[in-house]
User: Fold this.
Amino acid sequence: DIVMTQSPLSLPVTLGEPASISCRSSQSLLHSNGNNYLDWYLQKPGQSPQLLIYLASNRASGVPDRFSGSGSGTDFTLKISRVEAEDVGVYYCLQARQAPRTFGGGTKVEIK
Amino acid sequence: QLQLQESGPGLGKPSETLSLTCTVSGGSISSGNYHWGWIRQPPGKGLEWIGSIYSDGTTYYNTTLKSRVTLSVDTSNNQFSLKLSSVTAADMAVYYCARHSGIAVPDYYGMDVWGQGTTVTVSS
Assistant:
């Protein structure tokens, strides 16, 4: 199985400041079709997870453009350009390159 | 707007089989190239993918759970189901169902619709 490793585990952030989360996979998520099968999800407190980014860099419908995803192969990053109060929660990466799908352990983002 | 709703007993006994159903509304479970999956989250822990099923019955399972998991789909009732056998306290979690694209497909859009989740407790 592909192992997904996120860092940091916890990320205290200041409102209006940028934030960055890293996700690394034990195998390449790059397919021969050119797609990196890596998603990012946000689970706000008391809610179901919601899709933010798919294929490493594509924002899902309705996701603010302050969220961006980048990376290829085994190293990926989620960036928030200016953190807002509604961005608090736990962020997860997920690989869909091969079965079984596997999630990263999560990064908890909280306001300082 | 597509919606998913989990249902099933919130309480089970050790060694018994847990059965949950996800009802799809606002769209057909057979339309599009979507897979229908289950994800769980133990209290205070992260997300764990359990498995997924396509409308033709093709299934994919978590490696560590596959000996105890059975997924099925009922296209006539627009539902898919999860059975987890020999449950223990380690299976206590919030169980989510979700719609997602297939593994490594060109038209991939992630896990874009989730249910609200249902809490399962295992206790004698």
